Hints:
Blueprint: E1 2-6, H1 10-22, E2 27-32, H2 35-44, E3 46-51, E4 57-63, E5 70-72, E6 87-90, H3 99-106, E7 114-118, E8 133-139, E9 142-147, E10 150-155, E11 159-164, H4 181-196, E12 201-203, H5 207-228, H6 239-258, H7 267-277, H8 284-290, H9 301-310, H10 316-329
Helix pairs in contact: 5-6, 5-7, 5-8, 5-10, 6-9, 9-10
Keywords: NADP, Oxidoreductase, Pantothenate biosynthesis
EC number: 1.1.1.169
InterPro entries: 6-PGluconate_DH-like_C_sf, 6PGD_dom2, ApbA, Ketopantoate_reductase, KPA_reductase, KPR_N, NAD(P)-bd_dom_sf
Amino acid sequence: MIIDIxxxxxxxxxxxxxxxxxxxxxxIHLWTRTSEQATLINQQGITAQTSTTDYNVEAQTYIPSxxxxxxxxxxxxxNENKPKADYILVTVKQKDITADFVSYLKxxxxxxxRIICLQNGVRTDVWWDSPWQVYAAITTExxxxxxxxxxxxxxxGKTVVGRVTNISSTRVVDQSKAIDKExxxxxxxxxxxxxxxxxxxxxxxxxxxxxxxxxxxxxVINPLTAIWRIMNGELLVSKQRLAVMRQxxxxxxxxxxANGIEVSSLWWEDILAVCQATSNNTSSMLADVxxxxxxxxxxxxxxxxxxxxxxxxxxxxxxxxxxxxxAMNRQEDH
Length: 334
């Protein structure tokens, strides 16, 4: 079994380090954005920590360099000597899934390759060709990349995986119940390896709902933490902040209902629970802003705005945070 992980950010390093440490049957390749990160991992190994929510280290594991096979995504010179991957986990952000990125990924794929995509926001399925079996995945695992070869597991979560069959649609259509027995055996082999590595991962019968639940959580927490420059838990400290959160949430739910998306009355409580459980975490959008990187606002709140426009639903609070974050993104152009 050959598993490739494309992306060596927090989630990519977390999944990779766990698989390398625990899998006895799989060959795992890590594809990094830079050759410098790949060289560092191959020469010095990876340090993986388990931390509490306040980042006190509970356990630390060193994974020696001899176990690693890291390569830069944009340097496929050695690819011809490597057998094609059975599974590819795509852990880069939505903004990094470009035509160039997919062209390199295709060099590692064959007709039998299963592609599992872990991204925030509404997915960009148009990149994936029909011969591949494509899965969407949502994870609540907490991870923080400390350095290019150090990762901290900051919170134990759950990962759900579901089949994507309508490649041409901008909406994910879940038909995981219709997966035939042979296909279910194929994907279960990967899930078994991830479970043996200590990750709670299951095949979802309603990945569509899982994706849109995660989207509403991100649409509320990410932009506000980025704008106010606060940790997740600080969203809960005042009535004023909660009021803005609720405005974003109510707009998203109205858009979902107009689009015929199944919603749950528990999602507001889920958002509050996530803020509490990850109270000392820096959201991914805040991390991007602090590092002057382009954020995922286009695929999170931007997706909500577009879905609202399709049904003539106004989303003023989402519009506001979208333009504020986009103005921060533009700092990169100067």
